[in-house]
Design brief:
Strand order of the largest sheet: 2-1-3-4-5
Structural class: alpha/beta
CATH topology of the largest domain: Rossmann fold
CATH class of the largest domain: Alpha Beta
Number of strands: 16
Number of domains: 3
Shape: globular
Helix content: 40-55%
Strand content: 5-15%
Length: about 450
């Protein structure tokens, strides 16, 4: 079954037609379950599921339209192909209006049947894959993926929950490596624009003469090399979100055009004369001091204040050391799974060294160190010690005052550090387990299981 092209249910009270359909589809590599009554077919569907349902319309008892209705109720995404008698186009049209994906007339041409089934099954598979991708995208950029028990990160999470559903412009400030694009994408994924595009562009990485074309597009012949019309990021992000990273590096002439889009929701392509209307939410980010740039004349004050309707400041990792154990655990477990090293553990002295590091590269640096540790772990090793850390991390000095829960002291295991972070976060949320799980970036069931392991009785949020 694992190697089959898909699963098909065939419902037809005519044994000859049912058998010939079943044999043709089995020959093509499908797993087929066939029934002579609609009731039996629907009961099987509810218990086993399928990729495609092929049903005759005219049957005693439960007819094909009722089969279609109940199949869609059981699985709204199921593909349904109906078989109708010769000349009964009206019945087929009714079935299509009620959700059927395709129809064939009797006598059924088996070659045509195979083609229609292949198209319907592939359409179903593609729809399922798109749904899975959207689900993974939502999970990747969910607020739960932005972890942190520190007050600074809890404030960021609170701001995200408030600003995401709105259409307000957002300015994200923070050092490189703090996760500004992750925050921006999380805002998009929790907004009404989630079904449209999120397009990032790094204003510092693209030469000024090319950046305008990248943002607004160009007409054919607008400049040397413009051999055809090109849509820009604003046009492509219509009804979605455009993330302008390193906005502080944008040239002044281009800043005026960005301001116009924010105020009028319109622009013209480079070399164009037609005004294009768009509905785009702008999220900007910078690691530079925009107020200083405004004071020096390097950044327009009107654009600055138009962008910073809402400002989200991401604290650097060295200012929130209590988040290091949580992030360490998340990254380490992810890289273990990704590289097939489930037995790896971090020695307590490694965990303490990671707590002491300054993390000038912030979360990105911590992530890279942990990925390197796992990838370069000696074959057969189960515990990674200080000798496995890059030398500059082995004797790192602490970045600043450490919170009591993670203050330097006797070496502890990752489980002990994790327990401290969990219990502290639960206390800070007033016992709200759902909120604590979101802050810690773990599932509610995982949190409840760990609390049971710690001897905490189950409770209500």
């Amino acid at each position: 079954m694992a190697d089959s092209k898909g699963q098909v249910i065939v419902i037809d009270d005519d044994e000859g037609n049912r058998r010939s359909t079943e044999m043709a589809l089995r020959k093509d590599g499908y797993v087929v379950a066939s029934f002579d009554s609609g009731q039996e077919g629907i009961e099987y569907l509810k218990g086993h599921g399928t990729d495609l349902l092929v049903t005759d319309l005219r049957m005693p008892g439960m007819d094909g339209l009722e089969v279609l209705k109940q199949a869609k109720a059981a699985d709204p995404g199921i593909a349904v192909l109906v078989i109708t008698g010769f000349g009964s186009v009206e019945s087929a049209v009714d079935a299509m209006k009620q959700g059927a994906d395709d129809y064939l007339q009797k006598p059924v041409n088996l070659v045509e049947l195979r083609k229609r089934v292949a198209v319907a099954v592939e359409k179903r598979r593609l729809a399922q894959e798109v749904a899975r991708l959207k689900e993974r995208l939502q999970e990747k950029f969910s607020f739960g993926q932005i972890v942190g028990a520190s007050p600074g990160m809890q404030q960021v999470l609170h701001q995200l929950s408030l600003v995401a559903p709105t259409r307000s412009s957002v300015l994200i400030i923070g050092e490189s490596g703090t996760g500004k694009e992750l925050i921006a994408n999380a805002i998009h994924q929790h907004s009404p624009r989630r079904d449209f595009r999120f397009l990032p562009i790094n204003c510092a990485a693209i030469p000024a003469d090319i950046l305008e074309s990248e943002l607004f597009g160009h007409e054919r012949g607008a400049f040397t090399g413009a051999v055809q019309r090109k849509a820009g990021k604003f046009e492509l992000a219509d009804r979605g979100t455009l993330f302008l990273d390193e906005i502080g590096e944008m040239p002044l002439p281009l800043q005026a055009k960005i301001l116009r889009v924010l105020e009028d929701r319109s622009f013209m392509r480079v070399g164009g004369t037609q005004t294009i209307q768009v509905d785009v939410r702008i999220i900007a980010a910078t690691n530079s001091d925009l107020e200083q740039k405004v004071a020096s004349g390097a950044f327009r004050s009107d654009l600055y204040y138009r962008l910073k309707v809402v400002t989200i400041a991401i604290p650097p990792l060295r200012e929130r050391p209590e988040d290091v154990p949580i992030l360490t655990h998340r990254f380490f477990e992810a890289f273990k799974a990704e590289n097939g090293r489930p037995d790896l553990t971090l020695a307590p002295e490694v965990q303490e060294a990671l707590l002491r590091a300054r993390w000038e590269g912030n979360v990105r640096e911590l992530r890279n160190v942990l990925e390197s540790l796992v990838v370069l772990a000696p074959p057969g090793a189960t515990t990674l010690g200080l000798e496995d850390l890059p030398e500059n991390y082995r004797n790192a000095q602490t970045a600043g005052p450490q919170p009591a829960a993670v203050a330097a002291g006797p070496a502890r295991t990752m489980d002990e550090i994790e327990k401290e972070a969990i219990l502290r976060t639960l206390q800070e949320t007033g016992g709200n387990r759902t909120r604590a799980a979101e802050i810690l970036g773990i599932g509610l069931r995982t949190l409840q299981r760990k609390l049971r392991d710690y001897g905490h009785a189950a409770g209500e949020d």
